[in-house]
Amino acid sequence: MKSVGWLEKYHAGIGDEGEATAILNTYLNVADQFKSEDDYEEALRLCNRGSEIATIFNRPSHKGDFLWVSAQIFQRQGNLDQALSVIHESEKLLDPGTDWMTKGGQTSNFQNALVYEGRILGDDNYVSFGRSDEAVQSLDRAFQIADALVHRDANDQSWRGNLAMAGISMGDILRHSDARRALEIYDHTLRYLAEVPNNPHLERFEVELLAGSSYALRQLGRAKEADQRLEDAFAHLKQLKFNLDDKMDINSEGGKTLRALADSDAERGDLSKAIEIYEKLLNQMDRTESDKDFNLEDAVHLSSVCRSATALYRRAHQIDKASILERRRLELWRHWDQEIPNNAFVRHQLDMAGTT
Known about the structure:
By secondary structure, the chain is mainly α. 74% of the residues lie in helices and 0% in strands. The chain has a domain at 1-78. The chain is built from 16 helices and no strands. Helix 13 (271-283) packs antiparallel against helix 14.
């Protein structure tokens, strides 16, 4: 990566104050890219160096930015205690205070840190503590900040994306315990995203909101509306040219929508169709346990799909297939228990896999 070479040669110091923002943004963008490519060691190294430079330049909010990227990395590595500690430090540095509505970028990054805190605490699609009530508190604060700023400008795309990040995570947690409130969050977010049409970035969020809201609607006895939400989600995927027959991340928009459809079929009693979709998801995973890039987050997603598919096989009296998936899930977490011994999150997953 050319940017890394440039950063290595460029030894930023106090005399470079005029270029501080450009230097720090470059470090942050490159670190985030390494994080996306699962090169956590290099990403953390760049975050640490960026934090040092932010201290030299007396830019505490920039240091807060590096810390929330670091927190995401610790979360992905299963180091949840460290992730939570670092995200709290990030929030302290980024907190815009009482005049937060006037501080644009800093407020946006503070709101992002609150979302990541919620995911670390309790998002069931990520490596988390499973502390749902605490997670909702952080996510609700993030949601309220984004919502206030969305109301100021009907064309603001950035804050609508921030609103969606908080709304999706909060709705996905709440639908397990409070379907009515979850639906309110999903619907509120969908209304504001719809104000900016033909935006692929926001449309991907809409797909997740539509799929997620179908669960809440079914729990509320509104099955026809739930079916319509799924039809709308698939229509958006088609418009986005998302090929549902390709390899995919099973936690992607397409994967989540297919899974929501399967769960809807299962609730109606069409087990064969639901099983067919789950088998499709398992066969189309872009990364499996044998891939060198298969990470802990991938393991969470695979384990969740295996657990749901196992339950369907048992309902359909396909005991042999259920047993195969149960063993696969158990071996998955045994592997991770060897990779990161004595990790509390992994041990919990292993215990659950061994008792289901």
